[in-house]
Design goal:
By secondary structure, the protein is of the alpha/beta class. It has two domains: 10-105, NAD(P)-binding Rossmann-like Domain (Rossmann fold), CATH 3.40.50.720; 131-161, no CATH class. 33% of the residues lie in helices and 23% in strands. It has six helices and seven strands, in the order βαβαβαβαβαβαβ. 13% of the residues are buried.
């Protein structure tokens, strides 16, 4: 979605094969290593840092601060299992940075449907590729899937009734 809106995107992923797959689709990508290296990796692509960093796990929030541009924002959609991170507040405020929490549970079904409809057209137009590698799982096995995620699984799961 960011690329469609004109942003220069850098994907940071855990596995080398994910880097290769993203690069084959035309995206800049880096392999995540040690958290203290993330700032340097981001700054190697975005001189002066990134305007927006999107953290889908919450784990990388402290490390992301070093990769942030002045007045940049870090958007988070999840937190680590215990719900806590140690944030380098001094580095964040010296950059004028901010953290934005994105919680889809704050929206009802109708509001979510409107948002999905707004970007769903990009799939229909072919400007946004359909996801691949999806795994269908019975809803009854949902707890097991979440346990796998907590152990490091990156599977894309669709729950079926």
């Amino acid at each position: 979605l960011a690329k469609i809106r004109g942003a220069q995107v850098l994907a940071a992923v855990r596995k080398a094969d994910q880097v290769e797959a993203l690069q084959a689709q035309g995206f800049d990508a880096i392999a995540l290593g040690q958290p203290d290296a993330l700032g340097g990796q981001v700054n190697a692509v975005f001189k002066g840092g990134a305007d927006v960093i999107f953290d889908t796990t919450g784990f990388w929030l402290p490390a992301a601060v070093a990769g942030l541009a002045p007045f940049g924002r870090i958007a988070i959609i999840a937190a680590p299992v215990d719900g806590h991170v140690q944030l380098p507040a001094l580095a964040l405020y010296r950059k004028g940075g901010s953290v934005v929490g994105i919680n889809s549970l704050l929206y009802n079904c109708e509001q979510c449907a409107v948002m999905l409809e707004q970007f769903g057209r990009f799939f229909d137009e072919g400007s946004l590729p359909l996801p691949t590698g999806l795994r269908e799982v019975a809803l009854a096995d949902g707890v097991q899937c979440y346990e796998e995620v907590n152990k490091g699984s990156a599977d894309k799961v669709i729950f079926l009734p």
